[in-house]
Specification:
four-stranded antiparallel sheet, globular, alpha/beta
Amino acid sequence: MERKRVYLCLAHMSGKEMDYIKEAFDTNWVVPLGPNVNGFEKDLEEFVGEEKRVVALSSGTSAVHLSLIACGVGAGDEVMVQSFTFCASSNPVKYLGAIPVFVDSERDTWNMDPQLLDEAIADRVAKTGRKPKAIIVVYLYGMPAKISELLAVADKWNIPVIEDAAEGFGSSYKGQICGTFGRYGVLSFNGNKMITTSGGGALICPDDKAWNEIMFLATQARESYPYYQHEHIGYNYRLSNVCAGIGRGQMTVVSEHIAHHRHVHELYKQLFANVEGITVHDNATSDINSNFWLCTILLDEHLHVEGEEDVYAEVVSGAVGGAAGVTHAAKSAHTKLEPNRNVEAMRIALDKANVEARPLWKPMHRQPVYSDCPCYANGVSESLFKCGLCLPSGPCVSDEDVTYIVDVIKRAILH
């Protein structure tokens, strides 16, 4: 009998979500906004702490977009963006006609390099005569960045920080929840995140004034007249009351979800401890406590995997990983930067064994769509992309699954 497929991070319901959804239907609050939205925002505010205010939104991408607007980013402005990330961190910069300036990572956390950021800002000021308008720091795969050092650079140049904690919900740095250090913090509740609202996100705001402005922009920027008067461009970005009901149910198990991800990571560490050529990405220092949204491994470039001589022989059709249902047909089996052959061979071996795995994010500064954007690279993200792989880590992944996955990987290695 074929083994049930193991997914990277499958949504897991608490059982209480339907109570909130039923309440929304029973009271006819199926329109946008309503008691579930208000309740979900309060739950999030209690979870993140630090006296922050939270606005529930339709996606993490919309949260990035609104945070940039709130920081005064407009056409022609520059925004410093971590290159090693998903495109949702940088695309909203382009929405505004602004220019992403990509900054590479340091090797400990895989996140934005503070020293390189400082050098990059100095160079942008020298070249353009203007400071960048914002800095977008990402918590890649849930791993907290060296946020104290990054904030020191931001303070030196007096530039606001936006924390993209879409993958880092529940991660902490020195005991403080990620997303609460900068001016704004971005959360995502997409179907594969730590908790889900089916689709959705939120923006952590510093105070009531900022919260009110984000609320205003997210609900089509309507002025207080008895008719629809608009003096600013607004957006239809609020979360629905039905989806927020899912979020309220998810908040009852968020601590269990985070604990499970960390348990799975620890199990991978133990099982890979004596496997030569495989390195599990781990917390860099005692200050850092990742949620391990996805557990990630690096394959030594000299490690040989069964079938590696045959990879990239054919053009892939369709999307590998993620929720995309529609893709453009690839023109070639190769791009100018791609994972090593042994990494792709391992992904294929896992896929054949009914295990979902995928490469690390391809750095934004190596994406064709951003080829004309300034970039400050040190080679770290490119080298990691070539040898990294994401493994199943979600709340539906059992100890038995992890053991099976590690066994598949060990069997695929050629000795």
